[in-house]
Write a structure and sequence with these properties.
alpha+beta, two-stranded antiparallel ribbon
């Protein structure tokens, strides 16, 4: 974990989902490492073209719903994650993306993203749970 002074470049933004504190009715924010993880989550959950003023934002992972869970799908997911984070999150450099089929019967895929903060070279990981309901396994 880096110090607060070293983490200032990571920024502060609205927490997601947007919430307000009960005591002082202020907008809750996220900062530093938490802000980057929330941004990664937003990028991966956003469809390509969903934001009308920024159509390049997002990962497009939704196109893989109902896809056959095989090695080709793993490669396509890895490529989509790397490309979307390269284009939409300039504060990090993606070191590695690993895709694991953790629950084939329920279509659960875990995407492990290893990345480095560009300013401090500190390494971190983020696990993104992604659900694919594969049509070929419905009868099992």
């Amino acid at each position: 974990m880096t110090s607060k002074a070293e983490s200032n470049f990571l920024g502060t933004g609205w927490s997601f989902p947007v919430t307000f504190s009960a005591g002082n009715h202020q907008l809750n924010t996220s900062s530093f490492e938490g802000n980057i993880n929330e941004c990664i989550n937003i990028i991966l959950r956003t469809k390509n073209g969903e934001r009308s003023f920024n159509p390049g934002f997002g990962s497009g992972l939704q196109q893989f719903f109902f896809a056959r869970m095989d090695e080709t799908l793993k490669g396509r997911i890895i490529d989509a994650v790397k490309t979307s984070l390269l284009n939409n999150e300039p504060r990090i450099t993606v070191l590695d993306v690993d895709v694991e089929y953790t629950d084939v019967n329920n279509g659960l895929i875990e995407i492990l993203i290893s990345y480095r903060y560009n300013s401090t070279n500190t390494r971190h990981n983020y696990v993104f749970p992604f659900h694919v309901n594969e049509g070929t396994n419905l009868g099992q």
